Amino acid sequence: MAQYDIIIIGTGAGGGTLLHKLKDSGKKILVLERGDYLPQEPQNWDTIEVFQKERYHTKEIWKTNGNEELHPGTGYWVGGNTKVYGAALFRLRENDFNKTQHASGISPEWPIKYNDLESYYTEAEKLYNVHGKKSLDPTEAYRSEEYPYPAVSHEPRIQELHDAFVKEGLHPFYIPLGVKLNESDREKSLCIRCNTCDGFPCKIHAKSDADINCVRPSLNESNITLLTNAKVIKLNTNATGKEIISIDVELIDGVKQFNADIYVLSAGAINSSALLLKSANGLHPNGLANKSGQLGRNFMKHHNLAMLEVSTKPNPTIFQKTLAINDFYWGDNEFKFPMGHIQLMGKSNKDMLSQDAPFFTPGMVLEEIATHAVDWWMTGEDLPQADNRVQVINDEIHLDYIDNHTEGFDRLVNKLKHILTTIDSGHSFIPHSLYLRKKIPLAGVAHQCGTAKMGIDPNTSVVDINCKTHEIDNLYIVDGSFFPSSGAVNPSLTIMANALRVGDHLLNKIN
C-alpha cells in the first residue's frame, strides 16, 4: 500500500502550481522541498546582501568546461526561484510553438500548440495576479480574456520613453507583472511599488510567487503534507524498470524512503535531469527515462544581456520594470530572422553597479551613473544543442554550454542602442552615448529549460505531451525541462500554465 497518492518533488513555478491544481482532489499528496522557507528579514531588500553576497543563492559548486568550478545563481527555497524572480509573466508567442528558421539554425516545433495552453495561460494569470493590457503587443497571440488586473502604470521618465518609441513607429506595451498591486486604492494595495522587486525577495509578500500564491494556501488542506529540508537523492524502480516504487530522501535526521502511486519531478531543468541521471540502475544504465539519450541534453538558458543607458537626463523612477518592446521579435525589414525581446529591468543603484565597475571607481561616480541610468534587459532565443548539456560525473553536476546562433540577438542589442540614441535628446550632450553592458554568464541559470524535452517519439524525446516520461509509467516532469525550444520571453508563465494542464491530466487519471 502506497504511503501517498502523489509525491511532488520541488515547489517552484511547476511544482507549486501543480500542487495548487491538485489540492482539492482529496488525494494524499506529499510535497518535498530541499530548502526551507525564505525568511522575511531586513536583508531581503539589502542590495549588498542580495547581489554582492548572494545571500539567497546556494553555496554548492557545480563544474563546467571539464573541472572548472561553477557557482550557480540559483536558490533552494519553498517557491523555488520564483522567490527572487522579477515576476514578468509572458506568454510564448503563437509561432514559438512552430518550427522557425533563425539566421543560422532552426527552432524546433512543439508537439503541443499555443491553443492547447491558452486557457491555462489565462488560469495561470489569474492565479498569479498578472497585471497587463492586451492588444498593445504586435506579436501577441489570441487571448480569450483581458488580463485579470490592470497594467502597472509607467512613472514619468518611462512614460516619456514610451511616447518617444511610439513616435518612432514602435509598439511599446506594459510588461505583464505578477504583483499584488492596487493603484486605484493604494490603502488596499499590498505592493508598494518599491525599488527592490526585480531580483530581490519580497519582504512584504507582495510579489506573486509559487510559495505565497500556491504552496502556503494548499497547506490548509488536510490531505497535503510539505517536508522542507528534504533533498531527494534517488528514485527507485520496480523489477521491470517501468514504474517508480520509492524515493530516497535526505532529511535532517537521516535518509528516509517514501512511496506513492505517482511521482512528479519539478526540481528545475538542471537538477531534475541530474537526479534522474544519478538514479541510474541496471535496467536504466544511462539514467532513468534516458533510453533516447536525450536526458540532460539541449540545455537552454536564453541569450540575456543587461544594459544601462546613461544620458544627461536624470531618472528618478522607483518602480521601473513596466515597459517592453517586441517589434523585433521576428526580425525587421533589414533582417528577416528572429532577434528577440526587450524589456526594462528593476532600477539599479550604486551597490549593484559596483560589482562590475573597476575597483577604483569612486562611489559618487557610481551614484551619478545610477541616477541617470535606464536599465534594459534583452532576451534572445537560445536554440537547443545536444552538446549543451547536464551530466553527472563523480556524483557532481557538470553543466557544459557554448553560446550559439547569436547573430539575431547581437542585432537586437545594436538596434536598441541606435533607437535610444535617436529618441533620447539627453544623448545629444554625450559625444558617444554611454552604455554599460553585461552578458549574463552561464552561472545565471534563472531561465533554464530543455533538458528533458517533450515529444511524441520516445527515441528522440524524454517526456510525452502530458509530460510523462516515455519509459516510466508513473513519473512526470513539470519544470522547464520539457521545453523543446525556449522562445525569447521569460519561461515562468509557460511552466505555470503547463503545470495546470498536466494537473488536469492527472486529475482525470486519478479519478
Question: Would you write up a description of this structure?
Answer:
With 511 residues, the chain is α+β, with helices and mostly antiparallel strands. The chain has helices spanning 13-22, 47-52, 114-127, 156-167, 210-218, 269-278, 350-353, 363-372, 407-423, 492-510; strands at 4-9, 29-32, 62-64, 68-70, 100-102, 105-107, 130-131, 173-174, 177-178, 224-227, 231-237, 244-251, 254-258, 260-265, 303-310, 323-325, 341-344, 373-380, 389-393, 396-400, 434-439, 475-477. The protein is built from ten helices and 22 strands. A hairpin with a 3-residue loop joins strand 3 (62-64) and strand 4. Helix 1 (13-22) runs parallel beside helix 5 (210-218), helix 1 (13-22) runs parallel beside helix 10 and helix 3 (114-127) packs across helix 10. The model is unreliable at 428-433 (pLDDT under 50).
What keyword list fits this structure?
6-stranded antiparallel beta sheet; 10 helices; 22 strands; 511 residues; globular; alpha+beta
What's the helix and strand layout?
Elements: E1 4-9, H1 13-22, E2 29-32, H2 47-52, E3 62-64, E4 68-70, E5 100-102, E6 105-107, H3 114-127, E7 130-131, H4 156-167, E8 173-174, E9 177-178, H5 210-218, E10 224-227, E11 231-237, E12 244-251, E13 254-258, E14 260-265, H6 269-278, E15 303-310, E16 323-325, E17 341-344, H7 350-353, H8 363-372, E18 373-380, E19 389-393, E20 396-400, H9 407-423, E21 434-439, E22 475-477, H10 492-510
Parallel strand pairs: 1-2, 1-14, 2-10, 14-22
Antiparallel strand pairs: 3-4, 5-6, 7-9, 8-16, 11-12, 12-13, 15-18, 15-21, 16-17, 17-18, 19-20
Helix pairs in contact: 1-5, 1-10, 3-10
